[in-house]
Amino acid sequence: MAETVKELANERPSSAVPAWRWTVASVVLLALCAIWAWLDVQPAIKVPLPDRSNEAEVRMQDFRDALYYPVRDLMAGHNPYSPSSMFEHWPVRQNFNLYQPYHLILNMPFAVGGYRLGAVAFTLVGLALLLLLAYLAARQLRPRVPLAAGFGGVAALLLVGEVGKAQLYVGQINPMVALGSAGTLLLRRTHPGWAAAALALAWVKPQFGFPLAVVLLIMGSWRVAVGGTAIAAAASAPVVGYLIAQQGLSSFLAAIRENLNWAENTDYAAIDSMTARRPDMAGVFFRLTGWAPPGLEVASLVLAIVIGGLIARRLDRSSIPGLAPVADLLCLVTVIVAVVHQPGDILIAVPAMAAVAAAFWRRGRGPLAWMPLAAVALLVLPHLHHTRVDEVIAALAGARAAGVADGVAIVAAWLLLAVFGFLRTRRACPGESPVAPPTASNGVQSPVRG
Question: Do 345 and 447 fall within a single domain?
Answer without folding.
Answer: yes
